Amino acid sequence: MATGIPPGIDLCAIPLAVNPDGLPPNFENPPSLQPTLIGISAVVLTFSVVTTAGRLYVNKRALKPADYCMAVGLILNIAIAGVIFSRSREYRHAWDTPICWYTTRLAKLDFVEGLLSGPALFFPKAAIFLFYLQIFSINRPIKIGSKIGLVMAFIAYFPTSLITVYFTAPHVGQTWDDVVTSTLPVKGVPVGITAAAASIIVDIYIFILPLPAISALKIPLSKKIQLVALFTTAFFGIVASVISLVFRVALLGFYDSGWQLGRLAITIIVENNIAIIVGSLPAFTNFLRTYVSNNALYKSLRSKFSIISNNYASGSAQHDSLPRPSTWARDSPQKRQPQYNELTESVVLKAHGAVPEVTLIATREMSDGTMVFSQGALVNTTLLEFVKTFIQAYDNLATLD
């Protein structure tokens, strides 16, 4: 299993590398990325499972190809997370890792992870392109662009996954022990770098694909920026892909490989789950509106939160001796404002800051392949109402034909 070591030596007493500070190996409680990996994974996995479950539940009577793709992506993502967790103890410095940990078990886990990595990234991103086909069904350029994106994603993930398998599996006449002692895994690092670069291209393409349709809307620039904000969640996928590429490049030297692999494992978990969360979030907000906003417990909490907010606002007004600006003078307190669950056919965007809040209502009406927008009344809302509005915006994007 290891070369250059006389037989009879206890490999569990020898570290993979010498500590650069000249200290003896610490096999008991060394610095490790395992707790960080588990903590981050618990958060993002919970979000991805909950959002996907909500998506599938709300669409259970009319599941579409995008829903099936996302379900497959979630299953593969959980499988990869299981593989990473099972080897997470190795995510420590090489001088604190005994040689005996590097066995055929580790080589087989590398093989399984490489086999699943491509499909696990492809299916969630394919679901996003299929989602674009749904909400831009009459926009021919985006329909064509989404189909091109599906092909790009397939080329970016499946071939590189198969090539990775080539470098992690024993060849003809070899055993798994030969893989552990060979340089095949090191030779496969450039393939992972190529896959990460291709993933960045796909993520950028997902981000910019809807922008031409948005730029064609006959609305002011400030409102276009508000609408673009609905698609910026895809930007987090780009960030995760870039970080993954950086950590893969760091593996080229294969110095302190356990620590570098631990950092890479964290980015893999984040990248996979962000793709699932971004793809499931629009339908999940529909689930929240349909099954959560009408729940008695939710209404009770909402009522209590509103009372607290109103009391706080009243107390602040009594202690504030400075005159109030007249920014909101156009708001009529007697005028009944539309309630959250009455805005089921509109996409509402609110701008907060030094300027008055502006409500932008996007109807389902289409004209010449573009969405028709109309400006609604000025609305003065609390932070809670802003959150509900953002959720409603995603909900309606998910239900646009």
Automatic annotation (TrEMBL):
Record keyword Membrane present: yes
Subcellular location: Membrane
UniProt topology in membrane: Multi-pass membrane protein
UniProt xrefs under InterPro entries: Rhodopsin_dom_fungi, SAT4-like
Membrane-crossing segments per the record: 37-58, 65-85, 115-136, 148-169, 189-215, 227-254
Pfam families: Fung_rhodopsin
Keywords: Membrane, Transmembrane, Transmembrane helix
Segments of this protein annotated with the region Disordered: 316-338
GO cellular component terms, semicolon-separated: membrane
Domain Rhodopsin: 58-289
Family classification: Belongs to the SAT4 family.
Protein name as catalogued: Rhodopsin domain-containing protein
Lineage of origin: Eukaryota, Fungi, Dikarya, Ascomycota, Pezizomycotina
